Amino acid sequence: MSVELTALHYVYLAFIVLIMGFLLKRRDTTMVCVAGIFLLGLIATEALGSSVSGVFNSFIYATKELLGTIMIISIIVAMSRILIITGINETMVAPLTRYIRTPAVAYWGIGLIMMVTSFFFWPSPAVALIGAVLLPVALRVGLPALGAAVAMNLFGHGIALSGDYIIQGAPKLTADAAGLPVSEVMTASVPLVLIMGAVTTGVAFWMMRRDIRNGTFREGLVAGGGGTAALASSSRGGEEQAVLSPAARKTLAVIIPLLFLVDVIAMFWLKLQGGDATALVGGTAVLILVVVTLMAHRNQGLEKVTSYMIDGFTFGFKVFGPVIPIAAFFYLGDAAFVELFGQTLPQASHGIVNDLGLALANSVPLNGAVGAVTATATGVITGLDGSGFSGISLAGSIAQLFAAATHSSAAVLTALGQVAAIWVGGGTLIPWALIPAAAICGVSPFELARRNLKPVLIGLGMTTIVAIFLV
Length: 471
Prior knowledge:
The chain has helices spanning 7-24, 30-45, 48-86, 88-93, 103-121, 123-140, 145-163, 169-178, 182-214, 246-270, 274-297, 301-320, 323-331, 336-341, 352-362, 368-382, 392-406, 410-428, 435-441, 445-470. It is mainly alpha-helical. It has a domain at 72-166 and 225-323. Helix 1 runs antiparallel to helix 2 and helix 3 crosses helix 12. The two termini are 22 Å apart. This is Transporter. Keywords: Membrane, Transmembrane, Transmembrane helix.
């Protein structure tokens, strides 16, 4: 396998380095991303008009890709607002306070529940379900909102999604590309997923405790918003009329979790995944919002339903506003480039990001240790588009190449590439990919990405070392 790298590839790579540098320095990246999109368009089309139009069209493309996530976050926030104002949320989570009494229990409890749920339904709908119910409990016992977001993110988008042992979407893609049975890749991934998960979540927890103790922990709350964590503090005129009787409040506090439990059963029974599962949760949340608002506000209910929806969408787009430009740039690394600027890449190209990963694999010496390092690096590079799944087929192909050349384990290399790609691109380091957890907790996705960076990099290093011994 070989690939021709052009000026487009090198410019894209240079801007990736520049954007990552700005993120690490806690500087805004919008201008850098716009400049990158414009320059890539100018090189590809050699037309000023097309490159200028490409900036706007890339924003439209990114918004379309993110729209489902924007909608579910906005609707969950709108529903949570009326639940908090009426006191239903407090009544609903009261029994959990018996078991979640410390920040440590909250961190590990939320994480493990998120992991188990995500194994069955993938992380996005799991974040919406768990965040709305468990976040207030975690905050009450002293776990920072950013700490809760880290737990949901690492256990759900990290451990559960990188293993994907129930739905098996990820191992199917990598196994097919490597020419291996799915079961073989899944078996090989078990020790890698365990090491990656244990190291990453443990380091993240230790860093959080250390920073809180030293007074250096950054909350990372979104300015002007707070997800489900701070909705009650943004009260407006007329909300004092949102009154429910104690009996109605207790009844709804039982019914609402049961409705979401029915959703979970329906997802399992009907085999709903991804967007379908998210849509079921979102539709349920809208119905809860409407019914509770009409019960609480009575004559003003019709107007208040609209008001709460506006609040939810205002929060959703406020959170996504800074993310759309950077998402627009990174989407150009995959199929978006051809859609926006035409077939200007080499004919054999698999997309800018995949080309870079393939070029890396072709430029290193062939042995088991280098193969493991290259599999990790390829997974990381292909994960930079924020999908996590778009490049794992390439990871499987490269694993097959190295295994054949070095007589090492193709299954281990395949699983390693899969783990690296999904941990980076599936939602722990790329800001727009981890927005569900960040938005539900009301924290900045960029601050969440920075909080995850060291634990994930340490985890990848340790997992790669273990893989070297296993190949």
